[in-house]
Design brief:
The chain has helices at residues 47-54, 85-99, 113-117, 145-166, 171-174, 182-191, 207-212, 231-238, 272-282; strands at residues 6-11, 17-23, 31-36, 58-63, 106-111, 129-133, 168-169, 180-181, 218-223, 246-251. With 291 residues, the protein is α/β, with parallel strands linked by helices. The radius of gyration is 18 Å and the shape is globular.
Amino acid sequence: MTQTPRPVLLTAADGYQLGALCYSPSGQPRGRLIVAGATGVPQQFYGHFASFAAGQGITVWTLDYRGVGLSQPSSLRGFRMDYLDWARLDLAALLDHVQTQGAGPIGMVGHSFGGHALGLLPGHERVARVVTFATGAGWHGWMPATERLRVLLLWWVFGPVVVGFKGYLAWSILGMGEDLPRDLFMQWRRWCQWPHYFFDDPELPGLIDQFARVSTPIRAVNALDDKWATPASRDAFMQAYRNARVERITIDPRQLGLRSIGHIGYFRPRAMGLCQEAIDWLFEQSGPCPA
């Protein structure tokens, strides 16, 4: 059962205010956990997982990035932002806050974009271990043929029409998630045209060196039926963490007794076995883990 979390108001380095939620264990905490969510997924979606982890003595924080959910402006029309702000400013503000809250190792679970965020995060060395779910390079070429066509139509037909009419990506109209700012849509579409995502962007030449500075151990989990982040897509992205110990895990939902997982099913109640494995690995030691 999902517990009632405590609201946390954060202020990013540029002054933007963010809404986070904290799930506290009933007893003495044995660790701290940040949930870095996926693009277009509100933080409440991770509430069941956060409560599940809190029930095992972990203090958990979730966050809505700027432009989404509790961190949304009064109107997305005309709202300006950089997609990388989600990690460099928003997640950074949460990490700074968590650092001041109690003791014990800090772990992170990154869902899709949340796995990208680690390499962009100032002070990433404060995170002891990271588990990523559904993190990949985003290129349509890594996707099955039918999904590739669907995504190309989204990027170049439906998306531009909706953005042109509404002034933002009204994903809720398409039934695909939270509405997103126009700037984010444009950057996301740009990066998804390349096999290695934003690492292939000539306007971001220093990014690959930035990711190489990460030494935090990573466990990267991807499901075979995840059409957006296939194992090949994961491998194309994770190679950027070349100085981190990256354990790549590919799961077949059927072998776990699950009909499907897809891109977001890792956090649904029926998949708590996967989450249990993540918690066990993240907090099996009492302190920071070696690289």
